[in-house]
């Protein structure tokens, strides 16, 4: 489980928005030129469904990059539930600037609100247990930190960020290295100070991973009884992460086995964007 570094996140927000505006506006908003250059207006962003609000920093950065004179007043705090038809913020500034930034701002806000809401829904299913729900690397290209941030807004936690900050030795790595023990030993010999996690698919492989001294063991598609056995065998000597085949229906049962973490790709993929709109007050 990892904390998202604030400086890294701030840089990612800037880069996300820069890329989005280049994609959407390119070398100029030609429709925006129809509006008088000196026209000033106000707008509201409204949500049409109950959700966890997330993405304020990306919205702020959109309008900051387009026009620093734009003023945004948020009426709801990040990470809070909002009801349908709630006005999330008021925006004022040159009409051209507001309309040029509308789509990019809403794209970030609707995606990240959708992710945070999904994460909160899953988190609520394990209330009262000690398990922590983790995201995965199954994210939209270029928006990994954004989605991982949204996951934390919804009450879940961030797994490793990428291939560079932790070892995660999976089935193909094990095969290429010549076995579980060899893979773990090789990871230790690199001298890289990073957690060593290895994926196992049955109790026999679990025993090998325990004997080889892994820091974290991912239990891939284990049956509930085998998860309980894994917890008993490990006796708290290693962190256990359940993964694979996790749904809303079986999540609580998996959490009850005593594993430390449960990772879910669904927290960041197959996301339904929140229903949002921006309305100008002309």
Question: Key terms for this structure?
Answer:
4-stranded antiparallel beta sheet; 282 residues; 2 domains; 40% helix; 9 helices; 6-stranded parallel beta sheet; TIM Barrel; alpha/beta
Write a brief structural summary.
By secondary structure, this protein is α/β, with parallel strands linked by helices. The protein is 40% helix and 20% strand.
Number of domains: 2
CATH homologous superfamily (4th level) name of the largest domain: Aldolase class I
- Molecular shape: elongated
Secondary-structure-derived class? alpha/beta
- Round the mean pLDDT to the nearest integer and report it: 95
Named CATH topology of the largest domain = TIM Barrel
CATH class of the largest domain: Alpha Beta
Task: Spell the H/E element sequence.
Answer: HEEHEEEHEHEHHEHEHEHEE
End-to-end separation:
48 Å
**Quaternary structure:** single chain
Question: Total number of β-strand segments?
Answer: 12
Give a verbal description of the structure:
The chain folds into two domains: 6-123 and 271-281, Aldehyde Oxidoreductase, domain 3 (Alpha-Beta Complex); 125-267, Aldolase class I (TIM Barrel, Alpha-Beta Barrel), CATH 3.20.20.70. It has 282 residues and is α/β, with parallel strands linked by helices. Strand 9, helix 8 (224-234) and strand 10 (239-243) form a beta-alpha-beta unit. The chain is elongated. The termini are far apart. It contains nine helices and twelve strands. The model has no long low-confidence stretch (mean pLDDT 95). Strands 6-11-10-9-8-7 form a six-stranded parallel beta sheet. A four-stranded antiparallel beta sheet has the order 3-5-1-12, with helices on one face. It has a two-stranded antiparallel sheet with strand order 2-4.
């Amino acid at each position: 489980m990892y904390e998202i570094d604030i400086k890294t996140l701030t840089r990612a927000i800037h880069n996300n928005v820069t890329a989005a505006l280049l994609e959407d506006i390119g070398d100029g908003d030609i429709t925006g030129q129809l509006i008088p250059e000196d026209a000033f207006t106000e707008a509201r962003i409204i949500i049409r469904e109950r959700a966890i609000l997330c993405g304020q920093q990306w919205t702020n950065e959109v309008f900051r990059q387009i026009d620093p004179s734009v003023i945004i007043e948020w009426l709801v705090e990040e990470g809070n539930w909002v009801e349908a038809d709630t006005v999330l913020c008021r925006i004022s500034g040159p009409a051209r600037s507001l309309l040029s930034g509308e789509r990019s701002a809403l794209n970030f806000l609707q995606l990240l609100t959708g992710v945070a809401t999904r994460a909160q829904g899953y988190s609520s299913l394990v209330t009262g247990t000690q398990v922590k729900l983790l995201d995965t690397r199954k994210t939209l290209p270029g928006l990994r930190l954004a989605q991982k941030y949204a996951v934390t807004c919804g009450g879940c936690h961030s797994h490793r960020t990428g291939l560079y900050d932790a070892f995660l030795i999976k089935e193909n790595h094990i095969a290429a290295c010549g076995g579980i023990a060899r893979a773990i030993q090789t990871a230790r010999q690199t001298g890289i100070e990073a957690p060593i996690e290895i994926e196992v698919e049955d109790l026999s492989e679990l025993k090998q991973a325990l004997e080889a001294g892994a820091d974290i063991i991912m239990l891939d598609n284990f049956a509930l009884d085998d998860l309980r056995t894994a917890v008993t065998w490990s006796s708290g000597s290693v962190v256990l992460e359940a993964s694979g085949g996790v749904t809303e229906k079986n999540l609580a049962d998996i959490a009850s086995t005593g594993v430390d973490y449960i990772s879910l790709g669904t927290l960041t993929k197959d996301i339904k964007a929140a229903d949002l709109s921006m309305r100008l007050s002309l």
